[in-house]
Specification:
Helix content of chain A: 55-70%
Oligomer: heterodimer
Helix content of chain B: 55-70%
Shape of chain A: globular
Order of helices and strands of chain A: HEEHHEHHHHHH
Number of strands of chain B: 1
Distance between the termini of chain B: 59 Å
Radius of gyration of chain A: 25 Å
Largest interface: A-B, 65 and 53 residues
Shape of chain B: elongated
CATH topology of chain B: Helix Hairpins
Largest sheet of chain A: 2 strands, antiparallel
Structural class of chain A: mainly alpha
Number of strands of chain A: 3
CATH class of chain B: Mainly Alpha
Structural class of chain B: mainly alpha
Distance between the termini of chain A: 44 Å
Strand content of chain B: under 5%
Order of helices and strands of chain B: HHEH
Chain lengths: 275, 120
């Protein structure tokens, strides 16, 4: 009886999923406009809105097109733009070699502030909900695991710090760097029986990092009339001391995310022993 | 060179697998795993929208040298930035929902959603 119910349910679900799949796949080959199929294989960055994000020319482009009375959507290529050379070009609107970082932290910095807030709230919710749940005691780790985790921890920390300091030059940035730092704390929590994670200290670090993020934004508001505007000279593209505010904000985000995720991992492992 | 259609198809298939899992599984952890698969599919789809055949990752390095409006060697960086945000928010929601799953297990002593409720 129960078994047949389950099989019928699965069959209905499978039919629904297959129908949805047919609907998805026919969209790939259906003419969208002027008899053309969805442009999946002949994409050109010149036709994309992100052209000026790549050329670090967003504010200039909108000013130029507004002064010539043209819309942004059809006249993107008319805007004069400079060539960007690694290690030579100076004083662009935004000086980071990593284009994704320049979008995440500079052009869409307010979005990132909201993203960090979402992570903050979810870790607060985790800490509140986990209260009263006491984790099981794990088996005592072997000597190799104990020694190895104590030996590896500083190197993992160093690697995390390297990732977020070089966020504007290499792949990575504040969020992956913070995740690497949290993985180091996870190794300590699993490998050392006696290790106690200091939740209060990590919460203070996290709150201070969040305050620093907002105050950097406020300095931008007073210096350049826009929240989170870049108020530091952007320097030469490709150098460590470049990109102005981007490097600063990614360091703050790295510390904040590292503290947050470590708190979450520690709470999940230990639970709240006060209850 | 890999066609973008491959990425779109993989994203669709992953999405459908995740949807099937959410519809049929009864274990709450398995439902959360299926939701994560769906999330990955959506992220892959967004990245595929920015894919350009033969283009490089959008990071200026010494080997790439220089870019200008006539030699754009990068894939679209905007979807990648959006997906970075989506991944972090997905992490937050997954952590919160796993915590709720732990609480449910402590309360009902089962992870099966059809057996939850009723008894306290």
């Amino acid at each position: 009886m129960k078994k047949t119910e389950f099989i019928t349910g699965s069959f209905i679900a499978l039919t629904l999923v297959v129908l949805l799949g047919v609907f998805f796949f026919q969209a790939l080959f259906q003419p969208l406009y002027e008899g053309k199929v969805m442009p999946v294989d002949n994409v050109n960055l010149k036709n994309r809105l992100s052209l000026h994000y790549v050329l670090k020319n967003v504010h200039n482009a909108s000013k130029y097109l507004a002064s010539h009375g043209k819309s942004y959507f059809n006249n993107r290529e008319l805007v004069p733009s400079r060539k960007i050379t690694f290690g030579e070009s100076k004083n662009f609107e935004e000086g980071s070699a990593n284009e994704v970082t320049s979008i995440v932290v500079n052009y869409r910095g307010f979005d990132t502030l909201g993203e960090v807030t979402v992570l903050f709230i979810s870790i607060i919710g985790l800490t509140m909900l986990i209260g009263g749940v006491v984790g099981k005691k794990l088996r005592q780790p072997s000597l190799i695991v104990r020694t190895g985790s104590r030996f590896l921890f500083p190197f993992i920390l160093l690697f995390g710090i390297y990732i977020f300091i070089h966020g504007h030059l290499t792949p990575g940035g504040g969020f992956p760097g913070g995740a690497v730092i949290a993985s180091g704390f996870l190794l300590l929590l699993l490998g050392l029986e006696s290790y106690k994670f200091n939740t209060t200290a990590s919460k203070i670090v996290e709150s201070l990092a969040g305050l620093t993020f907002v105050s950097i934004g406020l300095v931008g508001l007073f210096a350049k009339n826009s929240f989170l505007a870049n108020f530091i000279p952007t320097g030469t593209i490709g150098f460590l001391y470049s990109a102005g505010m981007v490097a600063l904000i990614y360091i703050v985000i790295g510390i904040k995310v590292g503290a947050e995720l470590s708190t979450g991992v520690a709470e999940l492992k230990e639970g709240d022993e006060n209850d | 060179m890999i066609s973008a259609i491959l990425f779109y198809s993989t994203a669709f298939v992953l999405f459908l697998i995740g949807l099937f899992g959410v519809l049929t599984r009864k274990n709450i952890i398995k439902i959360l795993v299926s939701l994560s698969i769906t999330e990955t599919a959506v992220n892959l789809f967004l990245i595929a929208v920015g894919y350009i055949e033969g283009a490089k990752a959008p990071i200026l390095t010494k080997t790439i040298g220089s870019i200008s409006i006539n030699s754009l060697k990068f894939v679209d960086p905007l979807p990648q930035a959006l997906v970075l945000t989506a991944i972090v928010i997905g992490l937050g929601t997954t952590a919160l929902s796993l915590t709720i799953a732990i609480k449910l297990y402590k309360n009902y002593k089962t992870l099966n959603i059809t057996k939850m409720g009723g008894k306290k």
